Amino acid sequence: MQHNQYGSLGMAAVLAALAFGCASSPAAPFNQMESSNLTAFRLQNYEPPAAAVQAQTGAAGAIPGVPPQIQQWIQQGAAGLQQLIPPGLLPPGLLQPGAAQPGAAAQPAVDTTPRFHNFRILGQTQVIDQGLKEELAEILGDPDNFAANNANCMYAEMGLAFGMGQPTNDVLISFSCNQVQGATFQWPHPYTGMKSDTVQKLAGVVQKLFPPGS
User: Fold this and answer.
1) Do residues 150 and 156 touch, judged by C-beta distance below 8 A?
2) DSSP state, 197?
3) CA distances from 116 to 39, 42, 101, 137, 183 (A)
4) How many CB atoms lie within 10 A of CB 195?
5) Cα–Cα dist 97/53, whole Å
6) Which residue, 27, 96, 110, 211, has fewest beta-carbon neighbours within 10 Å?
7) Is residue 150 classed as helix, strand or coil in its secondary structure?
8) Containing H/E element for 173?
9) What is the pLDDT of residues 163-173, one digit of tens each?
10) Bridge-partner residues for 163, per DSSP?
């Protein structure tokens, strides 16, 4: 009887360990991220028409044609959101709407701007740090980091592409809309809205990927 009791306890411990291991593993496809090639993109979340960017407006901080989610994000940014969002993720010129942007008046006949899922690429980097890969996998692969608190939009400031070949697993991250999206795969979690802690964690990773001034 005592032997059986110890045997049962041992089996329970094994099952508990297995359950813990499964629970702590990032959800697919993020469980592959640490061993994959990973590229991070800094994206321009919205491209207002050149004429709208240059136009003076009566409303403080308002730019004609810019979506309300972006307007709100800009206003929050002016009040301190940039403490969380690293420099460079705000679209050029949007915090100074009255100022003309270089090259805005004359658009090229053919747009050859590098893009990631239709978003203009402001910068990109190959992620080779295993710690950063693991950190991103843990953040994005944990359903507890997400909730139903996102805006109904997708203006991405960051993109990720990972995999061992083509096609890659592509992720869009929008701080302004407070949500993420699997661009080439079905999102594995019930919700796509980022919790406040998730935003802070991702902002910390972005600071490492794209240091200020880079």
Assistant:
1) no
2) H
3) 11, 9, 22, 20, 10
4) 15
5) 6
6) 110
7) coil
8) strand 169-174
9) 998 899 999 99
10) 37
pTM over 0.90: no
Please give the helix or strand (H or E) that residue 22 lies within, else none: helix 2-24
Residues 90 and 120: their CA atoms lie apart, in Å, by: 12
Classify 69 as helix, strand or coil: helix
Residue pair 148/108 in contact (Cβ under 8 Å)? The answer is no
Instruction: Tell me what pLDDT residue 118 has.
Output: 93
**What is residue 98's predicted lDDT score, i.e. its pLDDT?**
43
| CA–CA distance, 68 with 162 (Å, rounded to integer) | 32
Token pair listed for 142: 């944990």
Instruction: Give CA angle at 115 (109, 121), nearest 5°.
Output: 110
Residue type, 34: E
Q: Look at residue 31 and give its three-state secondary structure.
A: helix
